[in-house]
Amino acid sequence: MRPSLPLRRPARVAAALTALAVTGGVLAGCSSSEDDGDGTTYLVGAPIVQSGPGAFAGKPVAQGIELAVAEINDSDFLGDGGRIDLEIVDTAGDPGKAIAAYRQLEADDASAVLCCTLGGEAGALSPLLRESTVPGVVTVSILDDLADPPYLFRPFEVPSAPGGMYDQFLDTVLPGSGASDAVMVVNDDNDAMVQDAAVFEAGLERNDVDLVKTISVGTAETSFTSVATEIASIDPGIVVASTIGSSTANLAKALRSRGWDGPIVSNVGADSRAAYDASGGDLQGTVFPTPFSAAFTVNEEGASFAAAYEEEYGEAPDMFAAQGYTAMWLVATAIRDAGSGDPDKVAEALTAVEEQTSVYGTLTYTEGQAEVAEPGQYLVWGPDGTLTPWAS
Fold first, then answer.
1. Cα angle: 354, vertex 295, 65; to 5 degrees
2. 229: domain range?
3. What is the CATH number of the domain that holds 100?
4. Start-end of H helices in the chain
5. Average pLDDT over residues 43-64
6. Which of 4, 138, 241, 342 would disulfide-bridge 355, Cβ 3.0–4.6 Å?
7. What's the rounded mean pLDDT across residues 378-390?
8. For the whole model, what pTM was predicted?
9. 202 and 273, same domain (yes or no)
């Protein structure tokens, strides 16, 4: 067994965080490792969504990465004055922009790339990553079978895996809901949401809840008036939202305005204060699973991260911030263990990882895919953005 990856206690740093390039292309002229006389600088790129419907996830991911970079650089974790040079490019959820950003980072000899906020980006980038020389670490996407060493790794558990978080969540929450029927809303242009929908449909059937209808909507759709009107006319016991956070927020807002006040059962994407605020508080009563909650941390690492993030950004971190933070620490540890910014050596070091202490608990890796020993949490949005553990 190789030693676990260390996870630094978050430092309460007042120094400015590494600047992000969120609106333009990646800066040219960088290399995977450059010695400026004060220590080696390692280029790490992050083509992730910062605008559009996926920004509810991408922005906290970026802030989690930012915080990790500040801690890594301020603590001399890499040794000998080594520093991470972070470049974040806004993909706006466009797979074409994600590909272009990755190609530029590859040309600039990046040591590694943090990628794949949305399923569309992941689907577009994964073939490139499998054929390139720059390793990628997934920040958010839950598409099946993404991890593929030595060039693609995922440092969080896939909730839709058989017997995983979603199955456990549905088998716990549905029997206690008292619902006999349901309507499901699906972002059918997002592969991950379609993937989740199949898990939810099977869970409903397994728990004797009749799926009356499935309604498809696009991730860019902002008006859910007709969807909510149709659901209100059916008046199901529950509504299942296999949608990204912004869609879930718009759905909840439309449902409440149509007088439907039943419970909404959703996915990890509902773990977003930005989505709650966008709903105008109408996500109240929405139940969802999450691997991380700042209010209910499972270990000291999680509590320390939550405190440092809130001090830096003035708000509690959500699951997406935790994922960005964990992914960046994984990359930094691989660079340190490789003793080099050469992407091939970093990929070898990532492949060698077997265990990582994280804000979710202990992660173990099999073929680049993490599994967590600690169970997920089931939370409910309450008034004023409060979160409470679900109880039957």
1. 50
2. 165-290
3. 3.40.50.2300
4. 55-75, 95-107, 119-131, 165-177, 191-206, 225-234, 245-257, 273-278, 300-313, 319-338, 343-351
5. 94
6. 4
7. 94
8. 0.82
9. yes
